[in-house]
User: Fold this.
Amino acid sequence: MASERGGSSGAPPADTIVVLCRSGFEAECIAELGSSSASGAVSGGGFVSIPAEPRSGDEAALRLPRFRGLAFARDRFLGRAFRIADPSDRISPLLSLAREFGPIGTVWLQHADTEDGRSVGRLCQRLQARFEGGLGKAGLLRAASPRRLHVLFLDGTHGFIGVSDARNGARWSMGIPRLRLAGAPSRSASKLEEGLLWFLGDDPKGLLAPGMSAVDLGAAPGGWTWVLARRGLRVSAVDHGRLSAAALDAGLVNYVSADAFTYRPQRPVDWMVCDVVDKPARTAALVQRWLQQRWCRRTVFNLKLPMKQRHAELQRILARLLQDLGPGLRLEARQLYHDREEVTVFATLG
Ligand SMILES: C[S@@+](CC[C@H](N)C(=O)[O-])C[C@H]1O[C@@H](n2cnc3c(N)ncnc32)[C@H](O)[C@@H]1O
Assistant:
């Protein structure tokens, strides 16, 4: 762990990049931050800490790598380790540390997404309002500021504190969205809903709108189809497996019993989505064919990652798509909170 300091020391307060990720994907996080990160990096369950060039608190948020360029990071900030000497008062030492990072717009109290981490989550909930109140009284809260203060508790007394910039950072604290999907036919529905929110934002108007057409490859039992139909798209749902009544009842859905790899749309569609369970290179080749043939304009697809070399395999696949489809391709990959051993990718040709 990076050196622990408990308050103002005169030293630049930010010397560690802290990344939250799905537990088991720490090595991928380190790998995608670049080879220089590997030395000195420390992995815990669901997070990594990586030594960084020391920065003052004011500039720390601006010195972070582009967040949308990272596939495995759920959230990340630049800061430093802390240790609270007396757990009967956590607020005062945290406030004195927060001062070193200057005014902020939001504060996120965080924990790793592991069993131990989640037990610390209750502590975070308890502290949130009091800490925010203290920051307000100290004049450190500025509603318009894009700077976020992160306090990551690893246990009741240790953790990391630092900052990020909302314009170059996670959309949800710890990368965990709160979705409302009551009645969805499958758990997978959350993957597509989260993916659309992350890749397209809350108001994707020109990109995804009622009346558009879509093909869902590997659709059964119908979660992704349901998400698209709920947004007013007409969906051809392709699978040999059966679609649930919830998906069919959503309206606008045409079930096609066919093979995802040989199916051809009768006419080009706005969207193709694909969640088939197959080798990632095979899925990517299928997507490439759809884009190259202009059978769809945009796509969201899920890649099931191999057990080993997951970062390298993902990079190989993305590089191949970029090389074959040209510089007009917008491509973004992300291991969503609702993804397991997989990543979700958005691609569109300009
Ligand atoms: C992970 S499930 C899809 C879940 C779906 N996205 C949802 O939200 O309910 C994968 C689906 O891909 C289908 N599948 C796998 N290989 C296929 C193929 N070659 N052609 C058509 N469907 C395929 C399976 O039948 C299975 O229903």
Summary: Residues 185-186, 188-189, 218-224, 238-241, 259-261, 275-278 surround S-adenosylmethionine (CB under 6 Å). The first helix runs from residue 26 to 32. The mean pLDDT is 93. The chain has nine helices and 14 strands.
